[in-house]
Each structure stands twice: as C-alpha cells, then as structure tokens.
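We both want to read discrete structure tokens more fluently, so let's practise on a single case. Once you have written the record down, we can walk along the chain together.
***
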Amino acid sequence: MRKWWGSVVAVACIVAIYICYCLLRPLQVSSITIDLDTPSPGDFTMDDLGLWRAAVGYINPSTGSIQCRALGEGENYTVPRATASLAKLITVQVVLDKYPLAAGESGPLITMSGDDEARYWWTVNIGGSNARVVTGEQISERQLIEGILLASANNMADSLAIWAFGSMDGYHQAANEWLARHGLTSTTVGGDASGFDPATKSTPTDLCKIMLLAAEEPILAEIMAEPEATLPTGDVIHTTNQLLGQNGIFAGKTGYTDEAGRGMVVASRQIIGDTEIVVAGVSLSNDSYQTAFDTTAQLIAAMPQNLRVLNLNSDVSVGEIAAPWTSNRHIITAHGLVVPYWVDKPPMITATVADTIGDSLSPNSIIGRLVVDDSEVNLIVTDGLPAATASWRLAHPYY
C-alpha cells in the first residue's frame, strides 16, 4: 500500500511540474510574414564611361557608413599609385582628429617661424603649389586649412602637420594610425604631408572614402565650399575646384605631380528618388585638368541613373505576426530607414524575430530586427498580443 501510495505521489509531482512548465514557458510564435520584396537589379552604366582610374561612392544616411566601388577591372584600378595633393585631405583630417574645430570656428593662432618661411621659399623654388607666409605671422588653424584645401599649399600642409605633431615623423605615425582606424589599407603616406612625395600612394576607392570622410566633417565641408579666402598676409586665395557649385558639388580637391597625373575628387549632394544622398566621384591619372573636371562631372551626373534608395517610413507595415491563440497583428518599423544601393546590387533583406514570446506583448513591443545590408531597424507590433489562458495551454501543451 505504501509503495503504491509513493508511486501516486511521484506521478502527481511530475504532473504538477509539467503543469507549471506549461503555464510558465514562453509561447511559441506560429508564423512571421515579412512582406518586403527585394528590389530587382538594373543596369550599372558607369563602367561604360571607360574611365581609366575612377571610383564612385556614397554615404548611407541611416548608418553613416561609406560605400565606394572602382569602375572597371584590373590593376589600373586596384594598384596604389601616387596621389599628389589629394593626400592633403588626409593631412587636414588627421590634424583635426587631434585639434578639432566646429563649423565656423577659427581655432588657435599659430605663429609662423623662420622654418615655416623657409619652407615656403623652398616650395616656390621647386615649383610646388604654395601660399605665402612670413616669420612672426599669426595664422589660425582654420586659415592654414583654407590654404591647404583651396590653394593646395604644400608648405602649409607641412607646417600644419609639424605644428600639430611636433615633427614630420610624429605626423606620419598619427596618419598611419588614422588610416588603419578607417580601414584604408591601400593608402600609404610618404615623406611629407602634402603629397608632393610620390611615395604617398592610394587607390581610387580609398580616395573616394577619404573624400566622403572629409565631407562628413562640418568644418571641412564648410571650407571646401568657399570659392576664396583671405590670409593674414592679405593674399586672397581661390579654390582649385572648378566644379564647385555645379550639380550639387560642395566639396572637392585637385592634385597634380608628374607621377600622379591630374586627379580630382569631389563630393555632391544628390536627390535620389526623394532622398538627399552625399555621393563622391574620383577621377585620377588624367592628362589635363580639363579632362579631370570633365570626367568627374560625368560621374556625378550619372549618379541618379546608377544609385537607388530603399526608403522605409517609420509607420510602414512590413509584415504580420501570428500566434495560435490570437489573430494576426501588423509589424511595423520603429523608426525610418534609408538604404542607398547600386542599381545592379540590390540590398539583402532579412528579418530576425524571437521564436518565442512571453505571456503577452503590449502595443509597440519590440519583437525583432529588420536588417537591410548594414542597416538595422526594430520590428514592433502595433496593437500587441493578448495573453493566452492557462486552460488553453493545458489543452494545447505543445504551444
């Protein structure tokens, strides 16, 4: 009798544990439907331009990430070559990394030394691009950057780098760290900060990224949009970017040495669909500046045909969630999502949703993530999910 009674107690305990398990375990979601079709690919036409060393890119406004692609194939597009003065876009960003300026700020005053004046005359004598400085002159950090980006002054690039890091070696160490931090593995900095040294090399895609990184800096975007500036010497310097103001172009840099040829990088604000996207065009190794200007303008003009935008509004329904104990509920994105993409490379779209939930979900509960390439957005249910009853659970113990 006692043995039988002990078996009953054991079975009762097992049943009680099972009932508690059924009551407390999360409920399984029976289905998730995401009604968001992947865009169909189209024809990418920029390769048809037949440019020798070129690249294009854009900034994803949702994430700030930068995407660049070389045009064409082969070593002409992937082997690092001399950058000439395009390297100055690296110099100013590395210095601003240490001594940042907000838009409109002038920064500290820097006193030009005898070495700075000698550097100016040396640059003049070798035929490098320059801007005049005199011993004892006080010039702001912003004005030096204006001289570097507008007049492409080699002497000012080296003076600013030495001021910021104490020596050219100190600048090189900081520049290499900056390049590594931004994944610019195909770019190296040579013996100066101006790019006059042909040992400073890069690829079209790296220079595209460097241009877009500069465009994201408000102070640099502001300076590169200036057609001219006045230095403390009274000299008026003018931008070398002849495309400034055309087709949304607000920033850019030119460069020339015998080894590099004529190069041009620009950033432009383009309306793609109904969304403003910052894009870049790079044209290198041209035989003349006119060719560099023309080919770069071609790249920017071709952007609307070759770039698309997937735009999800914050209140868009992208699917439904179903559970065995209730009717379907809409899933919506928790905030807007803007994803640019090349017309021939539509974005990958995936949804990740928990396969179980708790007793209930209140309205606007987050149930998962919608991933579109490198962009993510929360998935939420609009009107929640009611709790299932205990009796329902007991009747359907596997849910």
